[in-house]
Amino acid sequence: MTTSPEHGGNTLTEEHVEERTDYRYDAGDHERFAHYADKNDVMRAMVEGTPVRAICGKLWVPSRDGSRFPVCPVCKDLYDNVVQDG
Question: Which of 19, 31, 40, 45 is the most exposed place for a label (fewest CB within 10 A)?
Fold first, then answer.
C-alpha cells in the first residue's frame, strides 16, 4: 500500500518477506553424494546405526537427509543402465 505526500500522507510501503529454506553445506559437504541403496537396508541402517552398501560399492552409515546432496554419478549410471534394464 502506498500513499503519496501530495495527498496529505506519508509514504507507506507494504513489505513482503519471502521465506526460503537455506541449504548451506558444512565444510566438506561439497564432496558428499546421495547414494542409491535398497530402501529397507537404508532404513534399518539408520535405526541400528550400521553401515549399508550403495550400488556403487560405497559403504557408509546413513545419518543425513540425502536430498540435500547431489546424486552419486556412479550410482545413477548403474541404476539407469543396469538395475532398470535388468
Answer: 19
3-state secondary structure the chain: CCCCHHHCCCCCCCCCCCCCCCCCCCCCHHHCCECCCCHHHHHHHHHHCCCEECCCCCEECCCCCHHHCCECHHHHHHHHHHHCCC
pLDDT of residue 82: 79
Per-residue cell: 5? 505526500
Q: How far apart are alpha carbons 80 and 59 in whole angstroms?
A: 20
pLDDT digits (tens, 9 = 90+) for 14-55: 665 555 544 444 444 445 789 999 999 999 999 999 999 999
Question: Does the residue 48 lie in any domain?
Answer: yes
pTM greater than 0.70: no
- The domain of 66 spans 23-83
